[in-house]
Amino acid sequence: MLVTPRRPHDLYSVTAFSHPDFTRPQLAAAPEARFVPAPADGVLPEAFFSTTNLPTYVKVGDTWRMPREPRMDSALVLAKDGELWVREGRHVKKGDRVAVGAHEDGSEGIYVHASAFLGDAHGDGEFKFMSSEVSREKPIDYSLMARLLIEERDRGGYPLWVCGPALVHSRARNDMTWFIRNGFVGALLAGNAVAVHDIEASIFGTTLGMTGQGEATQGGHGLHMRAINKVRAAGSIANAVRDGIITDGIMHACVTANVPFVLTGSIRDDGPLPDVVTDALEGQDRMRRHAIKATMAILIATALHAIATGNMLPAFVTESDGSLRELATICVDSSEFVVSKLKDRGTHQAFGVVTNAQDFMHILRLYVERELDQRKLAMPAARDLASAR
Amino acid sequence: MLVTPRRPHDLYSVTAFSHPDFTRPQLAAAPEARFVPAPADGVLPEAFFSTTNLPTYVKVGDTWRMPREPRMDSALVLAKDGELWVREGRHVKKGDRVAVGAHEDGSEGIYVHASAFLGDAHGDGEFKFMSSEVSREKPIDYSLMARLLIEERDRGGYPLWVCGPALVHSRARNDMTWFIRNGFVGALLAGNAVAVHDIEASIFGTTLGMTGQGEATQGGHGLHMRAINKVRAAGSIANAVRDGIITDGIMHACVTANVPFVLTGSIRDDGPLPDVVTDALEGQDRMRRHAIKATMAILIATALHAIATGNMLPAFVTESDGSLRELATICVDSSEFVVSKLKDRGTHQAFGVVTNAQDFMHILRLYVERELDQRKLAMPAARDLASAR
Amino acid sequence: MLVTPRRPHDLYSVTAFSHPDFTRPQLAAAPEARFVPAPADGVLPEAFFSTTNLPTYVKVGDTWRMPREPRMDSALVLAKDGELWVREGRHVKKGDRVAVGAHEDGSEGIYVHASAFLGDAHGDGEFKFMSSEVSREKPIDYSLMARLLIEERDRGGYPLWVCGPALVHSRARNDMTWFIRNGFVGALLAGNAVAVHDIEASIFGTTLGMTGQGEATQGGHGLHMRAINKVRAAGSIANAVRDGIITDGIMHACVTANVPFVLTGSIRDDGPLPDVVTDALEGQDRMRRHAIKATMAILIATALHAIATGNMLPAFVTESDGSLRELATICVDSSEFVVSKLKDRGTHQAFGVVTNAQDFMHILRLYVERELDQRKLAMPAARDLASAR
Amino acid sequence: MLVTPRRPHDLYSVTAFSHPDFTRPQLAAAPEARFVPAPADGVLPEAFFSTTNLPTYVKVGDTWRMPREPRMDSALVLAKDGELWVREGRHVKKGDRVAVGAHEDGSEGIYVHASAFLGDAHGDGEFKFMSSEVSREKPIDYSLMARLLIEERDRGGYPLWVCGPALVHSRARNDMTWFIRNGFVGALLAGNAVAVHDIEASIFGTTLGMTGQGEATQGGHGLHMRAINKVRAAGSIANAVRDGIITDGIMHACVTANVPFVLTGSIRDDGPLPDVVTDALEGQDRMRRHAIKATMAILIATALHAIATGNMLPAFVTESDGSLRELATICVDSSEFVVSKLKDRGTHQAFGVVTNAQDFMHILRLYVERELDQRKLAMPAARDLASAR
């Protein structure tokens, strides 16, 4: 039996793909892109071109060029030095040259290479079962995800982990710590709550006053406040690690293993911890510094942070040789809704895993450990083979 | 701004569509379909063709013919009188001639007209937001659904209503009763629980022992058992209505308004009520007698009955003149999951409404009433116009 | 910090508990229970006492006695030989003596020992976080569940496994097979779909036409029908195993390891397989034969079968010495809703695990294997110790 | 049949309740509360008392006093003028006198009057169906909610409305506008997205590029960015209303009807609009200015804003005469999860309505309109009666 052509947004398509053929008459005949100065700081010209997260080509000086730092919902800015950037409207200055246009087909000098990703995905007109994109009824290919993670690590990739507090409430905390310590995390993006509950667990052994067995404790509702207060007294999470207040867990691992983290604030935050970036725009800028470098994204149990990150991630990775591949994006949530919402906000490349975050982490780690064991076993043989030559 | 071409499975496409062009070389050159006798009662020949719910054409005697009583997951049987039927495997008798084949493109004499329904649905390769099919974030077009219902009633259609007990727990019971009394229900398909809770509400004013305000009552857990017992003593629901035991509600309306109902049994049933068809196969046969006549389907708050009905419904209605239109299928549930599951089981034409069943019923009735009021207001004018001619 | 008193329905309370104190004035002064003959076959006297799943004591001949085969939503029948039974109304014959009464406090000779289970669960009036009963945010104590399973096996318990098809769609199929083969399954209760997809997987390598990696296959929508047809041709699942048609998986393990299974039918069923009990009442009777023996229940990814089983399970196990302990009932589902619904239908003792069924099975097996390994390691030492004495 | 005592956290209990009896020996003998100076700005003394949202009494100068501006997760500060305040840790200054203590029973001079709210809620030890607190299966009492809203308006209450973008995606926008225009909204708390989609709808007729019928539009993904840009160019939402850019909808109604709104920022925000408070702490402070005045809260389709508001709301209203009543808190969401999460974060008084936000708004408005009509009809009669005296 034939397996149908792989859907572009599933995990199997994490392969290089081709640039468009610019000799096609439609593209060959396209005009130059038009740029108009921004009327004021943080205000775009009326007809500005609104970007997507897909590979985008802009005709400037008779060549098709890709802008740097691609993301959706932003503007194309032609800098004075001729460099082309994707910039959020609020970062555009009065007089900056901003591309205008409403079409993505090249007819206004801007071409969005959508077909590569969104191509002939569903249109095969065949009667099928199980054709929905996100469903708890689909098997989860942990083995593939484990291999992807190991390959990212081995080639020096930069996997973003974006996590919600479910990761800490449950025992996934140990597994996340393991991933950090073992080099699988490029950067951790999260909110105040992840760090608070992780630190509460380190100091008091509870999360939101609940034991590791899920029992509420007497006086437990104040423990996260006490944890916050201790870190505020220490001045920072790093200080609290240094002072022996925080002795294990996710934040401890980030600090001791030098894995960068960004904790962005929200109106739900208690405290907050001193490390939290409370301004949303400053928070976005800090997150984006990591998003620009991302070669993979794992979004776990958070709608807010997942969609925020999805908004600023390109759907693809640009290799150093200019070639492109899809940016593998895994979104884990208990319900189909968060994954569908992420896709509905434009992060089409997201591959949905509908499960409990704790269980996901545990099995993923298990598969990574198994794969590493197998590779270790296979290695001496490979070395023997090499030395025999 | 241009609205994108309507998706074939949304409610807007409830329009006639064309038969395939059989003069196309691929179809013109197709061989006759091949039929093989069934080896035993209820057993199909190995290579049997497994049907879908889409328009299907079988080449017999050099003509392309559509089988009668189409549904998915069944066999094509050529009767002795030359009539072509879709039959569940268990109804096939030893020696019945059953179509064989694995391809749906005509190359084995069987053509499934999938493109009409599943055509170029998604494959436009454009970057878009909100492209998921089923989402609580999509607006619900009650106005359109109200018009569809009224049109079905006015042209003598046969809308199937397939309901779960949420309809009775909540106050939607009154609204459902209104739809039955006012001619909008061709037949009601449900389980024991719908009737039990409806009758409990008529006799005791509670459902599962809960008042209409959601309060549990003392001794309430036994009230549905008492309701069942009373009807068992009376011998049938109709008897209980006649004897004044059941005085209002959904089942009362069905009995007094002569709307047929099928109550199929399940292993969850208490009692059951005497009217319940406890054998699942006999239950399917009874349901299918209505499914064959259906011109519309409204599936509310039930995974079991919705998928069961979806399995036996064609995706289309065959008009008396042989033309086809999509069978409008509305699936209402609190979560996206049930609707997606229904689609994943092959009922692609289902249009999902993600909301609370009680609220759905209340607003739908409101819109139907408004639309009827407006038509009543418009009518005299129309009559004046006619008389003026 | 103090851990709050354990909630009676959580897994930690699987301990023996006391019978009521019948010397309390209220109970000592209670009248004899009153019995009234059933007016007709399958019809109870109007004022019949409706049972619960809790320990129930009936005053007959001046002693408080517990009825045999306890379950909810049924009647108390005093047999001619003086034995007291819990019987579904439909099984009561004309003239059978049925207990009447509306109160559960002994005042009519019937006492329901509710406090033991439902006691002072929540009423401690303390401000707490995380006090909801079922939440995906609660940690899952796999270690405890693994120990419970092993203990049940070691003492010759009878754990019921009640499963939905999610178990087969996903790769949990291997893990379920492992549990069957290793003696952890007393009986398997499921529907047609579980067996169909399991057998489809054995024969074609797909479930609902989807590969183990979640890809739809060409022509895949018919594969489950072909699987069914092959078993229908063979006559039964056992025959198909014998004939080498089914070579692995869940049903294969049940047949070869002599683990009894009951496949009950529903109106959603394709086929069905020859082993399916299509009559819902006959299906309930077959299920109950196992429910009566149950000492533990694991309900996975099925609302229909879980609630059906919950309806017929007592909330407690009666040990051979007459002592009682809670019947550990674990309900696994992707959403809180199914677990809450099960509880709302009276199965208060259910302990909810909100996760993906596939992941649950994988981790549970892992923990059971680890626990067995540890016990094996510990055993020689124990034996040494013993021989040294 | 008896209705069980109302659960304290349901809507029916919005009644006055008593202060504790301070002559009880336990309380009469209680020591004075102890206060310790804060060691630094924004840092609390180690053993600080962590507040709840329940009525709290602090023994100072031999009297039991209630602190002002109660909320959970904060500290009790005794000001120099002897006034007692609830203050977030970050607002505490070095040297401020902060109450210490771990017990809420008065034994350290602090008494939390929990029983009034959380009392004997569940502990009646009776077997019942439908005892879960939040369920889509429970009826929704729109009639009661309509009366509460009208009563709040009539007595000059201050109902907070806290809304997520689902309110705007769907047609609930009209209904929300109606509530604002008709005096039912004390203040609106929301995020950037609510305002952006509302303004997109006013300017372009779409939300997230989707028409009111749920169709994606060509180029639609950029429309919300164009809407934001127009308001940024205008300088503020009020300016954009004044300039005729925004001509209808929710924000238009707030501006023209002088209903205060707070738009707080998040890392998900596009733009943002100029009115958005991007700093999370400044945002909390702005929200709390309204929370302090709140006499009712309606939280619709937002986890983030609902929990943020729940964190800063007392569970009760203090009337001008010092008497207390529960602060009616309605939480509307498509899933039980958000409501349970809100409760699990301590907002126990929340009453859950599990439905689609659009449908909720439509029916609630209908019921309010009906109730107003009935009162209008009743009024002349009342006036006649009065004049007849």
Could you walk me through the main structural features you see in this protein, from its secondary elements to its overall organization?
- 4 copies of one chain form a homotetramer.
- The first copy, chain A, is α/β, with parallel strands linked by helices and 389 residues long.
- The longest helix of chain A is centred in the last third of the chain and has 32 residues, at 357-388.
- In chain A, helix 5 packs parallel to helix 13 and helix 11 (303-312) packs parallel to helix 12.
- The first copy, chain A, has helices at residues 25-28, 115-118, 142-154, 166-169, 172-181, 192-204, 223-234, 237-242, 250-256, 280-291, 303-312, 336-344, 357-388; strands spanning 16-17, 34-37, 56-60, 63-65, 75-78, 84-87, 97-100, 110-112, 159-163, 187-191, 261-264, 296-300, 316-318, 324-326, 328-333, 350-354.
- The first copy, chain A, is built from 13 helices and 16 strands.
- Chain A is globular.
- Chain A has a 6-stranded parallel beta sheet with strand order 11-10-9-12-15-16, sandwiched between helices. In chain A, strands 2-7-5-6 form a 4-stranded antiparallel beta sheet, with no helix packed on it.
- In chain A, strand 15, helix 12 (336-344) and strand 16 form a beta-alpha-beta unit.
- Chains B and C meet through helix 7, helix 10 and helix 11 of B and helix 7, helix 10 and helix 11 of C.
